[in-house]
Design a protein that fits this description.
The chain has 393 residues and is an alpha+beta fold. The protein has 12 helices and 12 strands. The chain starts with a helix and ends in a 13-residue tail after the last helix. It catalyses: N(6)-D-ribulosyl-L-lysyl-[protein] + ATP = N(6)-(3-O-phospho-D-ribulosyl)-L-lysyl-[protein] + ADP + H(+).
């Protein structure tokens, strides 16, 4: 594998000196972390490559070039051009992230992608590798996958997309027979709590409380929401989710995308089929996947036609009459997760309002507000443009 082209591609800086320069600026600014936007400004158009990435390319590859491709709120993304062992040009997609969180995020995506690809190899770009840059400062990590040319602006056909999604859920098999995942994964920049659990209610309780804790760190105390969170965790979750496994009832742990909204899927331009990316998976109740579709950041999948088609392929768990309440409960994780990554987001208030609804119906308690349908996006249709404030769209 040739590496000389790599050095020339980077121009006057090599990968090591450029990343060391970023580290020096980190120290100068005395910031614990730089945002991706800040790192992009410091890179000034140069893509941060490293020999470790070249070693992860398929055997016999000859590196040709790398360029920035696409945008991401939490990683730097690029496209690699290389010749394969037969001399044919191939493209690869590269993600780069920094420090311990970058390691957790990209390792989680790699391990998630391997599971999803093994179940449905036409529903996700082929994963090639995860690793750490040889340059030491700042600690830098990468995820390498197949490059798939996608249309990310066209809404997928509801019947086609939900059939493929439901098949992924149905065909997957938890290696332990439990809910969870082998390594920590992420939804955006927030890490999931994914310790293996036999009880789905216990697993979801821990998952939700994990993102609620992160939200408090980001957005500060809110006594009424904290009280509602406690009531949901201690009473509502056992009531709604405990029933799914009571009296010996079986609930299949299914691999889910983990952050599924229209911004994390596209249409394969070569085949015309829908395709996923940016996975942060774990084995869950399959309906958990649909919780994101209720949130303000999901505009396309909020259309009820997607849920209707999905349920034709994978019917709601019993009691089916409580499907919408479970969906509201599952949406809490997505909304609070988003708020934890975006200080001041309106989704925090949405999540609290949904908690109030669930508490009123299943576990009334004094000290919290009354549910207000006027600020419920599932009624009003309110939506946001995700990551707009990050300046990446």
């Amino acid at each position: 594998m040739e590496t000389a082209v790599y050095a020339s591609q980077l121009g006057p800086h090599d990968g090591g000196s450029l990343i060391n320069e970023i580290h020096q600026v980190d120290e100068m600014h005395k910031k614990k972390h730089l945002t991706i936007k800040e790192r992009l400004l410091l890179l000034d158009g140069v893509f941060p490559m490293d020999e470790a990435v070249l070693e992860a390319l398929p055997k016999g590859s000859t590196f040709r070039s790398v360029e920035h491709f696409g945008t991401s709120a939490w990683t730097i993304t690029g496209r690699i051009i290389a010749d394969d062992a037969d001399g044919d040009e191939q493209s690869y997609f590269l993600k780069v992230a920094f420090e311990d969180h970058g390691m957790t995020m990209l390792r989680g995506e790699y391990e998630s992608s391997k599971i999803v690809y093994d179940v449905a190899n036409d529903f996700l770009p082929r994963p090639y590798g995860f690793g750490k840059y040889k340059v030491q400062n700042p600690p830098t990590y990468f995820y390498l996958s197949e490059f798939v040319d996608m249309d990310v602006t066209t809404a997928p056909d509801p019947a086609e997309f939900t059939k493929r999604l439901s098949q992924l859920h149905k065909l997957s098999k938890s290696p332990t027979g439990k809910f969870g995942f082998a390594v920590q994964t992420c939804d955006g920049q927030v890490a999931h709590t994914v310790d293996w659990e036999s009880s789905w209610a216990v697993f979801y309780r821990k998952l939700l409380l994990g993102v609620c804790e992160r939200d408090l760190e980001t957005n500060g105390p809110w006594p009424e929401m904290e009280l509602a969170t406690k009531q949901v965790a201690e009473v509502v979750i056992p009531r709604l989710l405990g029933r799914l496994q009571e009296n010996g009832e079986k609930l299949k742990p299914c691999i889910i995308h983990g952050d599924l909204w229209e911004g994390n899927m596209g249409i394969n331009m070569e085949t015309g089929d829908s395709i996923l990316f940016d996975v942060g998976s774990y084995f869950a109740h399959n309906e958990m996947e649909l919780g994101h579709w209720r949130c303000e950041f999901s505009s396309v999948f909020r259309a009820k036609v997607y849920t209707r088609h999905y349920l034709r392929n994978f019917p709601a768990a019993e009691p089916a009459s409580e499907f919408d309440d479970r969906n509201r409960l599952y949406s809490l994780k997505g909304a609070i997760n988003y708020a934890a990554g975006h200080p001041g987001s309106m989704l925090r208030k949405t999540a609290y309002n949904n908690m109030c609804y669930l508490c009123e119906k299943y576990a009334p308690i004094e000290g919290i507000d009354k549910y207000d349908p006027r600020i419920d996006p599932s009624i009003t249709g309110a939506r946001i443009t995700p990551h707009l404030a990050d300046g990446l769209l």
